[in-house]
Amino acid sequence: MANTLEIDQASVVDNDIQKQIEFSGEFDGDEYEFAVKYAVLKELSGDEPEDDGIELFNRFNDDIVDACLAAIERKPNASTIIVDEDDLE
User: Fold this and answer.
1) 55, 45 in Cβ contact below 8 A?
2) Which listed site, 18, 35, 59, 84, has its alpha carbon 20 to 30 Å from 66?
């Protein structure tokens, strides 16, 4: 059985100052802090996130989880895993 990222939905916040969605998640028994850049949401949706960052985050959840897993692989020891367009397949 493949491990998956479990997002703590209660921790999801839209940080429009930093232009990212921030949240906590658990993967393989470890807790991580994530920041998904608006550029990822724009790449997935084709639209610039405005007041709908969390809505876009939820709509593209599966793609974002995959990107988060790629980011963990690239930066496993970062205090906050920054997820950007390079993490999309």
Assistant:
1) no
2) 18
